[in-house]
Amino acid sequence: MRVLHFFKTYLPQSVGGIEQVIYQLCRNSPAHGIRSDVLTLSAETEPRTLIHDGHQVHRARLDFQLASTGFSFEAPGRLRELAAEVDIVHYHFPWPFMDLAHFLTGMDKPTVVTYHSDIVRQRALLRLYKPLMHRFLGSVDRIVATSPNYLETSPVLKHYRDKVRIIPIGIDREGYPPPEAHRLAHWRQQVGERFFLFVGVMRYYKGLHILLEALRGTDYPVVIVGAGPLEQQLRNQAAALGLTRVLFLGRIAEEDKVALLKLSSAIVFPSHLRSEAFGISLLEGAMFGKPMISSEIGTGTSYINIHGETGLVVPPSDPDAFREAMAFLWNNPAEASAMGARAEQRYEHLFTAAEMGLQYASLYRELLASKRKTR
Fold this sequence. Notes:
The chain is of the alpha/beta class. Helices cover 42% and strands 19% of the residues. The protein is built from 14 helices and 16 strands. Strands 3-4-2-1-7-8-9-10 form an 8-stranded mixed β-sheet, sandwiched between helices. It has a 6-stranded parallel β-sheet with strand order 13-12-11-14-15-16, sandwiched between helices. A two-stranded antiparallel ribbon has the order 5-6. Helix 5 (148-153) links the parallel strand 9 and strand 10. The chain starts with a strand and ends with a helix.
């Protein structure tokens, strides 16, 4: 079986949550007799096709961007050519240009859409896009939601319940090699024996301003890994609040991130808007057996982190509640450790890349069988 994934960006030029999902699916597909290719947009189109970790990545020229949406005059033709050679086309939503390209190609292949997120911020443009979006989602064969929570709270997915399947995002422990002893010793010396850890890009929906406000008047050590458009603003806020035990590390090497995940006491994940549709960094914490603190935003974050079981879930945009949750984990290390152990067990049961690959392979085969029966 051959599957073509289509999304606006991909590795190695762009590293994000959706790109990682596509990569894990491509990496795990050979075990199920599936060959996976990727079609993406790129300002660099030479070579037009390259090999990335065993699978082909086809690149169409990125001509311009509008409201974070990449457009390509070449892409619909490339999509038509590549789709003719595969059994299933797998789209990754949202990307409005993808919807348009789907119809321009006159697609006649079985289609799957992984619905990664609602469009949350660009409400004015959403009103213009809605007719095309619903026509596209209505035309595809299967839609995958990444958590039952998102299916229940999405105003869009409720229209397509009859063809929605739930397949959680999975990550591969083997992609996180154990840090060497000298690296662990270095970070233990830098950050101490106990600390809260945040990992992520400093975007508007990550809620880091809420985390910093929650630290007002406390002495909890917090390590923040990542960079982004709000970094300087957040540094200024921390200084204004007099937070002397917050350490901004910026971007660091993957090996250093793994070392900090291993050493940390708990993961803090204050995302307060449903633009945070799942939370890969939260899942990484679960994989490393860490208790978690997150907010209830009706998305996959509360499918990864179960309140009272794997960590604590608090109301969004509530610094006082977040502070109380941090105090509980800090003052009850035995209970925090037990929550972390349960988080790791939940990861092993639901969120491995192998399990995600198995479920998608089953969905692909079911879809092909249904199409053959219909024809």
